[in-house]
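Pasting as-is:
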Amino acid sequence: MKQDSAVVFVIDDDPSVRDALDSLIRSVALNVQSFATTEEFLLSKRPEAPGCIVLDVRLPGRSGLDFQHEMIKSDIRLPVIFITGHGDVPMSVKAIKAGAIEFLTKPFRDQDLLDAIHVGIESNRLQREASAVAEKLRSRFAALTQREREIMRQVVSGRPNKQIAAELKLSEFTVKVHRGHVMQKMKAKSLADLVRMADSLLSHTVKA
């Protein structure tokens, strides 16, 4: 699994913990950016690369759990791994339910943290790839004319050209031409391919 461009963001107010985590993470050839507070992290310029956050639960001011919810509201889609010296079961359940990858109580094994980091990075990598594909589909769909969008909806619902022509009061030839334009603009290689694209667009709530 190639992760040389990935970045791990460490947020912990204890300098000795930050230094230890920095050394550990760099020992497996991953990039690290460390912060004493969540405010520092938010003000930083983050690279466009897969990553995850190693976050202390108890921080001055805003807690790690509060920041996790703020990330969700702000659409910061980086997986979170919590570390704490004062964890309890209700706290860990709350964090995991909110989407945390792992909740580790100090002292934890280095390998447990590294395993969680690799899971987080791979999860973020897949999410970023899916988002990039969805963005390309949105761009192609936006390039369709209103008539082409109507034709596309009819085609992916399984209606034959003759039925589409009758419903839209067009000639079959015109429907075939529009259908060809749809296939070309959406870069669909087959009807099945176009149907998959339509499903993906729908799942991302894209509307004409």
